Amino acid sequence: MKPKNIYIALTFLMTLLVFESAHAQKSIPQRPIIQTSYTADPAPMVYKDTVFLYTSHDEDDAMGFKMKDWLLYSSTDMVNWTDHGAVASLDDFDWVPYDNGAWAVQCIERNGKFYLYCPMPGGVGIGVLVADSPYGPFKDPLGKPLVKNSNHDIDPTILIDDDGQAYMYWGNPKVYYVKLNEDMISYSGEINVEPTTPQNYQEGPWVWKRNDKYYMSYASTCCPEGIGYAMSDSPTGPWEYKGMIVESSEKTRGNHPGIIEFKGKSYVFGHSYDLLKQRTPKFYERRSVDLDVMKYNSDGTIKSLDYFSVAGPEQVGTLNPFQRVEAETMAWSEGVKTRFETEWEGDFDWDRGKKIADRWFLSDIHNGDYIQVKGVDLADGVKSVEVSVSPINGGTIEILADSKEGTLLASVEINDGRQEGLWKTITAPVSTPLTGIHDLYFVFKGEKDLFYFDWWKLN
């Protein structure tokens, strides 16, 4: 090859490598979708313009199943998820005899009320909590199980049919169902055992209706488990097995489906051990929720996925940074955790006799940790940034565009913690003018135990 041609080839190769490197930096994976906690048994609910994702919760030190409460996340764009912490726990049921067994739940709205159906393994039954808001607080209206049928009363799922009749399905290794009354906390008729339990059914049913067809997805095959599904012309079956939504493989191991439609697209949720595998080669019951787009064929059957994609679904809409954004809203994170505190400030609580305020914020922030927020619309430009923080040893928040090594938008200096425990708002100027839509990276720098981070806002 002539020297000139070698030079051209090398130049092309270097350009390609630079492009690939930049692309790799920008394409932060979104599998799993939650990184600050271990989450399982996803139960998504669409209410108005928001997806509310209820999950069970494996504790950070779980060896086997160590599950005490249920968590809530929300999103309006399917990529940035806001952590709302524990929305309910086993402590909400006075009749439950243990503090470990908060298995798969589902929440559904009816007539302005929100009903959270909670299974208690070991033959204790299925309870129900009720709230006036999807965020809670949830209360037990019955003081006893809604259903107490057998040792297999797990994984409840709810369908409200077009005629208003509600059904609850549950069970392992068989499918049980019952007709719920309009109050959603009682039922009529017998508890039925589905005579044609779908092929390869294990547990974790999720039932929905589309174009006059009824669908039941579930943890399928064992072991490992993928997500299979069956179809029917009736909410009570018979159910005809149609195939796999997510194929079973060693990547999936166990699974639990959640299916929704949101802003014109269908989505399938499941769980895996992807986050655990990033941290240790050892196996523990510490699962993480995954998400992907689900597509139908022209005959109503569902196209099969080999596995959840690394990139996850495309963003639906953009994020507005000119209003307060909770720091626990993110598409990806590394290192940080979330934390809840009740503090002596805010409105006076006459029942508790003091001023209180509830905060949910980022904690465990160390040098090099970061969060990524996708699709932030900077519009015609930004002049300054505000952050609400509580210093410990202090440090810096660097806000960068499009990658961790991208364009520096602003740098916020946070003093040491001589006033540790107090929250303050710090404003810093924007050093680089940027417009349009960008991914933002909040990169934390300092020595150790830097600060707590509550919210941010651009001006």
Attribute tags:
7% helix, globular, Tachylectin-2, Chain A, five-stranded antiparallel beta sheet, mainly beta
Mean pLDDT reading: 91
The helix/strand class is mainly beta
Give the overall shape: globular
Oligomer: single chain
Would you write up a description of this structure?
With 459 residues, this protein is mostly beta strands. It folds into 2 domains: 38-294, Tachylectin-2, Chain A; 325-458, Sandwich (Jelly Rolls). It is 7% helix and 46% strand. The radius of gyration is 24 Å and the shape is globular. The termini are far apart.
Note the topology.
Elements: H1 3-26, E1 38-47, E2 50-58, E3 69-75, E4 81-89, E5 106-110, E6 113-120, E7 125-131, E8 157-160, E9 166-170, E10 176-180, E11 187-193, E12 201-210, E13 213-220, E14 226-232, E15 240-246, E16 258-262, E17 265-272, H2 274-279, E18 288-294, E19 325-326, E20 329-330, E21 332-334, E22 337-349, E23 354-363, E24 370-377, E25 384-391, E26 395-401, E27 407-414, E28 424-429, E29 437-445, E30 451-458
Antiparallel strand pairs: 1-2, 2-3, 3-4, 4-20, 5-6, 6-7, 8-9, 9-10, 10-11, 12-13, 13-14, 14-15, 16-17, 17-18, 19-30, 21-24, 22-23, 24-29, 25-28, 25-30, 26-27, 26-29
Concise overview:
The protein has 459 residues and is mainly β.
